[in-house]
Amino acid sequence: MVTASDSDRLVVTGASKSYGRPGSRREALAAVDFEMTRGQFVSIIGPSGCGKSTLLRLLAGLEHPDTGSVSLFGSTPAEASAAKRIAFMPQVPALLPWASVLANVKLPSRVNRRADARREAAERAVAGRPDARREAALPVAAAPGAPAAPRYSQPTPRAAADPVALLTELGLGDSLKALPHELSGGMQQRVAIARAFATQADLLLMDEPFSALDEFTRESTQDQLLALWQKVGSTVVFVTHSVPEAVVLSDAVVVMSPRPGHIASIVPIDVPRPRRSGLAESAALHEYEDLIREKLRLAGVELS
Ligand SMILES: Nc1ncnc2c1ncn2[C@@H]1O[C@H](COP(=O)(O)OP(=O)(O)OP(=O)(O)O)[C@@H](O)[C@H]1O
Ligand SMILES: [Mg+2]
Fold first, then answer.
1. What is the pTM of this model?
2. What pLDDT, in 10s, does the model give residues 158-176?
3. Which-ligand-closest: CA of 19?
4. Residue 143 lies in a domain
5. Could you tell me if residue 224 is inside a domain?
6. Among the atoms of ligand 1, which is closest to the Cα of residue 208?
7. 145-183 burial, b if ≥16 CB within 10 A, otherwise e?
């Protein structure tokens, strides 16, 4: 039976994963335990090959753990995925090259209508829960100056559904009819962000979405992602190799050890929001960056 607390938590318990044939199996993830609350933004950082993408695939239901379990707000990843409650954003923006910017963002709402019906049924069940009204009354974003605290989102963040409004908010209002190849890398990545938010998924899984961007574009895209997330309040799991990026974006940073990956440390980032990347006054953010580098070193990661 799903309890109220299950429906507000993402929980990974003892999840392990190996690849290869019997006799020559390689352990990618070793007994990962990890938990976060609905509405949080959590980053995963660790060296190449430590299993970050593997962990995201387990959360997305694209692969199954060999041992252990994954619960996404009381559902299995397969159930959540079938009801379109998960949006997955890979490293390279997977846009349809022949479709316009607007058509790319509208795509998820046009495919798999049966999933929409499943989701509506699940939402009706949530709305009937005694705690649903309490959830809806909770603030989506912390007030400026308030300490970072676990945040709860409304079950469905309807406000962000309009693809044109989303693209306009991301600075692409003039490019609705453009084709992906007519856009810069940063613009393409912003289209992919708009598409992820347009699905109104409960859970956004982002696998190094900004790694190919130059520093300036990366910082402005981070700011836009944060602004959108604070408005919408979905739950985000974000993989990155960048310590400053992890710190500025996150409520907590999960530090992973080299292969076989396990969680070496979880660092809550207690810095008020709204935050912006590159701010000179962000001494507190720099202290967290140093702390995370230290945790990575302790986990056996060689930093340049
Ligand atoms: N489909 C697969 N078949 C075999 N081995 C795999 C597969 N997927 C991942 N692995 C192995 O599992 C380990 C973890 O891979 P994963 O892609 O999750 O690492 P990562 O932390 O995302 O690395 P990077 O930072 O380079 O993206 C690696 O040793 C990789 O070779
Ligand atoms: Mg990866």
1. 0.83
2. 444 689 988 998 889 999 9
3. 1
4. no
5. yes
6. 27
7. eeebeebbbbbbbeebeebeebbebbebeebeeebbeeb
List the CATH number of the domain containing 240.
3.40.50.300
Q: How far is the CA of 238 from the centre of ligand 2 (A)?
A: 11
Task: Please tell me the distance between residue 230's alpha carbon and the centre of ligand 2 in angstroms.
Answer: 26
Encoded tokens for 9: 């938590």
120-154 pLDDT, tens digit per residue, is 666 565 555 444 433 333 223 333 333 333 333 33
Question: Which ligand places an atom closest to the C-alpha of 49?
Answer: 1
* Ligand 1 lined by 48 (C-beta under 6 Å): yes
**Domain encompassing residue 31:** 6-138+150-298
Residue 293 lies in a domain: yes
Shortest-distance atom of ligand 1 to CA 54: 18
**Sheet hosting strand 41-45, strand order edge to edge:** 86-89, 203-207, 235-240, 41-45, 252-256, 263-268
Do 74 and 2 touch, CB atoms closer than 8 A? yes
Structural domain count, the chain: 1
